[in-house]
Amino acid sequence: QFEYNWTTTNGNITGPLDALQTTIDQPGTYFLNITNTQNGCENDGQVTVEEDVDNPQVDAGLGLELNCNETQGQLSGNTDLPTGQWNAVWTTVDGNLVGGQNGLTPTVGSAGVYLLTVTNSLTGCTNTDEVTVTKVVFEDFDFEISPPSCLKSTGEIDFMHEFGGTPPYQYSLDGGETFTTHVANGNLQPGTYDLVVRDANGCELTDVAYLPEPPVLLVSLGADTLINLGDSYQLVALTSLPESEIASVEWRADSTLSCLDCISPIAMPRQQTDYFVKITSKTGCTAESYTTVFVKKEANVYVPNAFSPNGDGTNDVFMIFAGGNSVQEVRSFLVFDRWGETVYQYYHFEPNNPLYGWDGTLRQTPMNPAVYVWFAEVELIDGSTRLLKGDVNLIR
Is the whole model's pTM more than 0.70, yes or no? Predict the structure, then answer.
């Protein structure tokens, strides 16, 4: 009884044109003409179809912060579409979706950038938003010790720097009470300490600190010693301190030392002398020691009991020999024959010099072989004198 006819000026009809209902695939104005086949009456109608191209509103939510205790978190996405009209999918390149990728509030297990895509199930329109998940890693911490010393028998541990984590930090030693200052304690006994640093999230790092025993500074000059007058003696300050750690060396003595600020000076005392040394370390520690050098004051003099002034170059001169440096000079040297006549005399000369010896003559006349008596006064380097005498056999 009725005929139908669909037409359009700017749309596109994809369904039948001669049916009451048809389909279209784009917006536009559509016209319908209906004709009554029995009486020829007809009527027209039109409808305007608009395109819904609005994308849905999407919010991926606030970022999350993971840490050593909070290893997983839930994202909080949102959309303005009514329930049942949206489809939400999460994707990530460097993160980890623990509970699947669908839904607005998935669970994540690692740091990364997460992308939320929401599709309007009626219109097919989509929109995206992203959120960043970070992970706070408490990586390490530094500490510094102030070890005990000879000046202070206790030490100190200072927490220096924290790397990562979330402040404020708390510190503890050996499982004791926590504290918030960087200085652990200024009066710690030598030993091993377990260190714990905890951040605001409860994440902990541990380490071990060792406070050594305070160093013992020792110095020794050894036992007392005996030397002959005129001899030298090297003093050696034996110390427990490496030479690189010595700040100063101080000797207390007179001018008989070759140096007053060295470890091993040469001493040449002329009488019994006490030598003191004081060692000071770079940390201010000191140690002292002393020793005594005794001096044997004997004239180290040798006078032959025979000589042969025959010109052969061997034992031609009767002279005074002195060993070491004990003799300052020979004040006098006299030789007498058996009748008491002086056959040779010389005064104020150094020993060991053949120029100051008797050649066996008297007034340039060779003396006969015989036994002669001699006397000598010797001055030692300390100013004291020794009177020496003996006899000598002149051999031709």
Answer: no
